[in-house]
Design goal:
transaminase activity, transferase, alpha/beta, 7-stranded mixed beta sheet, about 400 residues, 13 strands, single chain, 4-stranded antiparallel beta sheet, AspAT/PAT-like, 2 domains, Aspartate Aminotransferase, domain 2, Aspartate Aminotransferase, domain 1, EC 2.6.1.-
Amino acid sequence: MKYKKRKYFLAGRINLIQRSKIRELFEKAKKMEDVISLGIGEPDFDTPDVVKEAAKRAIDEGYTHYTPNAGIPEFREAIAEYYKTHYKVDVSPNDIIVTAGAYEATYLAFQTLLEQDDDVIIPDPAFVCYVEDAKIAEAGIIRIPLREENEFQVDPDELVEAITKRTRMLVLNYPNNPTGAILKKKTVKAIADIAEDYNLYILSDEPYEHFLYEGAKHYPMIKYAPDNTILANSFSKTFAMTGWRLGFTIAPTQVIRDMIKLHAYVIGNVTSFIQIAGITALRDKRSWEAVSAMRETYAERRKLVLKHLHKMPYITPFKPKGAFYIWAKIDPSLDMSSEDFADWLLENARVVVIPGTAFGKAGEGWIRISYATKKSQLIEAMQRMNEALSKL
């Protein structure tokens, strides 16, 4: 018997994963000259000096070896202190695992809690990784729409209607990417009650918690449903540490124990000296002063971009209360899909925005604009967009 020769073998599951439309657009933009990107969700600020200095010092002090799989105990204690100080929530350091950013945290949650024939409810639109994580876990995916008339909050009534006997988990991400929406306290409480009544886990992804505007507040889901919540968080946005890949998860004891088992075989442990820098980020007032300065700058940019967008033809922005994105509606009279509109802006204005459909079918008719870039570039991008749209 002869076997068919192949140059390589691939697991079928890898074909389930879709390539990010965001990355495809960036690659197209790279081939063009004089392009301004309002696409990527990355702070344009540098990591606070006090955090960088802490990492350098940690290397010199010998933090270059393996750590416990769950993370350095003092770092996990600092995270627990943070939740006690900021939110009056008691968290045991033993219920915390240090991860390679919130990306790994969400991956661990999907792989630990879901299996074939389980269902997970994912809002639409939503950040791109959740659906792909669900596919790898071989879970069924139920999308519930986030509606403009409800300020892009999850509707508790629609949530209940979507739950089946197979539903095991709900994904939340507030402050929200891509819409910039926040969850009001009454909605947080309602969702917490539903999770307890239907025995659901809530994966609550909260990396934008410190970028809030006009008096908005963040209510961590773990405060209202501690026995049902897997909280994923990251230092990437708060402290402008995207390249450091530092995050963490808080979960019930029985869940965190099994997440640590998987984590041990995925990466072993997060880089030791980066964890030490994380302690400084949480405990040093200078790092929090830097966060405050970033938030003020984002608030100014948000106001600037909204002002320009309101004057433009064919586009209407939703006023965000959190994160650093503006979710803007395309005028239906243009008869252009979100992807066509984003391509048109790239070709005619040399500005990158993200089509709403990158985040789900309910994103059709919308684009996401990031204002995590310099004021001068934002002004130039707004002028280019206005000039191009005025010619339609």
